[in-house]
Design goal:
Aminopeptidase, 8-stranded mixed sheet, 8 strands
């Protein structure tokens, strides 16, 4: 498969303009709520279709060999992620130059259904909260894909889950710009790229069993898995995203998500796959589920399946970058709100387990 050049049409995409910073002189005094809105819009506007595309045309290129768990292409992927965080000055919670949570082959092969997997890594980056640093908002996506087929064709995985991966990079950069300007989040943000999702949600399972921060301190997991395409159901109206699980553990998180969308992004929030009787069982099929099992409120952002799902046609030229930008901004706004609330969101629907 030839490497695909960034389409000229993508360069014509126009990002939303930013509003004035709260420090701009004003004729009338604004409330603290108004100031917060201005800042959220300002930093969300740094998440652009162009930058998302620049990342994805590299991350989902043939060079990364389909990012199969433990294989050389996946090692290139984690190096790309680490180098981004180092360049942006976003530290690792593990300390120093160590951005990798090692996931050993011995662990992976306990659950790999007979496959012989090699050592792999989750990638972690972190922005410390200014007021409630021990409370953690997790934004997650899986970094792996399914590799190369018997004919040597690369499964690029641009949508699955290159789209979620590059969205996190842009969201992290937006939070870092805010923090550098003195507007860091009250709660800490963990940017979590997990491996082994395609092998059975194994990287996120390893993280939740061996968390860098106590699961009890984890406020939410906003999980992004495929947000770059448009499915057949929405061909006539691509301005949508499926939300799964937002109301299953926390009424408050669901309401915040709805409010942030109404205020900022105006995307159709489709709950088709949130139905408990959904035969696809998508709620159980991405990395948020390992957090939900510990009663951590979650939202799963998803564009639905398409003809190139787990096929060689899942390439970066087929991504709808305008919608990738809007969906990533929705995640940012939701994370911003949850991270900056005075009180931690309540998991009012959690099924309490014995410790």
């Amino acid at each position: 498969m030839k490497k695909i050049l960034l389409a000229a049409s993508m360069l014509a995409l126009v990002s939303c303009g930013s509003t004035q910073d709260a420090t701009t002189p004003k004729k009338a005094k604004k409330s603290s709520a108004d100031t917060n809105v201005d800042l959220a819009v300002k930093y969300a506007s740094t998440i652009t279709a162009k930058d998302l595309g620049n990342h994805l045309f590299t991350y989902a290129s043939d060079e990364f060999e389909g990012r199969d768990t433990g294989e050389p292409g996946q090692k290139k992927a984690v190096e790309y992620l680490k180098n981004f965080y180092v360049a942006e000055g976003i530290p690792s919670p593990l300390g120093g130059d160590d951005y990798y949570q090692e996931v050993p082959a011995s662990y992976l092969n306990k659950f790999s259904r007979g496959k012989d997997l090699k050592d792999s890594e989750n990638v972690l980056a972190f922005i410390k909260g200014t007021e409630k640093p021990d409370e953690i908002v997790v934004i997650s996506a899986h970094l792996d894909h399914v590799g190369v087929n018997a004919n040597g064709e690369v499964y690029n995985g641009a949508d699955d889950d290159g789209s979620g991966t590059v969205a996190i990079l842009e969201i992290a950069e937006a939070f870092k710009k805010a923090a550098d300007a003195g507007h860091g989040p009250k709660r800490s943000i963990l940017f979590l790229h997990v491996t082994g999702e395609e092998k059975g949600l194994l990287g996120s399972r390893f993280y939740t069993e061996n968390p860098t921060f106590p699961i009890a301190n984890t406020v939410t997991d906003l999980n992004i898995d495929m947000i770059g395409r448009v499915d057949e159901r929405h061909k006539g109206n691509p301005n949508y995203v499926y939300l799964i699980g937002s109301d299953k553990l926390s009424t408050e998180l669901h309401n915040i998500s709805e409010a942030m969308n109404k205020k900022y992004t105006n995307i159709e929030l489709d709950y088709k796959y949130n139905d408990d009787n959904d035969p696809n069982r998508f709620y159980y099929r991405s990395d948020h589920y390992n957090f939900a099992q510990y009663d951590v409120p979650i939202i799963f952002y998803f564009n639905g399946t398409h003809e190139d799902y787990h096929a060689v046609g899942d390439t970066p030229d087929k991504i709808n970058y305008e919608m990738l930008e809007k969906r990533a901004r929705l995640v940012f706004h939701t994370a911003w709100e949850v991270a900056n609330m005075d009180k931690r969101i309540v998991a009012d629907k959690a099924k309490k387990k014995d410790e």
